[in-house]
Amino acid sequence: MTKLVTFFTFIIFTCLIICCNQYKYWDISKFKLDSTALSDNEEIKLLYTSRGPGNNEDRDYYIQVIAISQKSGDTVNILTTAENGFTLNDKDKVYNYFDQNNIAFKIGQGNLEKLNINDINKTAIKKITKVARDPKFDFIADNNFPTVIGVIGIFTLPAGN
After folding, report:
1. pLDDT at 95
2. Which of 53, 55, 88, 96 could form an SS bridge with 155, CB 3.0 to 4.6 Å?
3. What is the rounded CA–CA span in Å between residue 123 and residue 18?
4. Is residue 135 part of a domain?
5. Total domains present in the chain
6. Are 65 and 141 in contact (CB under 8 A)?
7. Mean pLDDT of the chain
8. By residue range, what is the domain housing residue 121?
């Protein structure tokens, strides 16, 4: 009897986890892609990130980040595969946007265990067609801002430059 109760408890717990997954996906065609909306290394501040249902290790979907350009003041969507782990403490920090031609983006798209830095420019960029979304935040995520694809990081010059 104890095994049967344990089995049903496991089944109920598994169903709750599967049924309560808050994430859904939009097709990338929903976004107004505009590669000129931000320039490579442009400074930004974060407003929102959709995060995703996992760590996106296989690069199966984009994560939507909404940011404000520190150069133009424009609000822009950034689609990235990196789960950066941003928190509310990051809202006042200044980050950099790195476009698809930047080595940071190419490294982020590759399998780091098999990555050979000499072949980085030959690395094929995986075609991704879906963007993770949390429907509870559609009031901010569902917008008409221009959209770029890239990664977010911090650009610093080595000492003495």
Report:
1. 92
2. 96
3. 35
4. yes
5. 1
6. no
7. 80
8. 24-153
Q: What is the pLDDT of residue 153?
A: 84
Q: With a threshold of 0.70, does the pTM exceed it?
A: yes
SS3 assignment, position 33: strand
Max Cα distance, the chain (Å): 72
Q: Return the structure tokens found at 121.
A: 């420019």
Handedness of CA 83, 104, 101, 154 (dihedral sign): positive
In single-letter form, the type of residue at position 31 comes to F
- How many whole angstroms separate alpha carbon 69 and alpha carbon 95? 10
Kindly state whether residue 158 falls inside one of the protein's structural domains.
Answer: no
In this structure, the chain runs to a length of: 161
- The reported pLDDT for the residue numbered 59 is 83
C-alpha to C-alpha distance for 97 and 108, rounded to whole angstroms: 13
67 closest CA partner among 43, 84, 51? 43
Q: Is residue 75 part of a domain?
A: yes
Q: In a 3-state reduction of DSSP, which class is residue 157? A: coil
Using CA atoms, how far residue 49 sits from 12, 15, 76, 124, in Å, is 31, 27, 12, 26
86-141 residue pLDDT tens: 777 877 899 999 998 887 777 776 655 566 666 666 666 778 999 999 999 999 99
| Cα gap 140→37, rounded to integer Å | 19
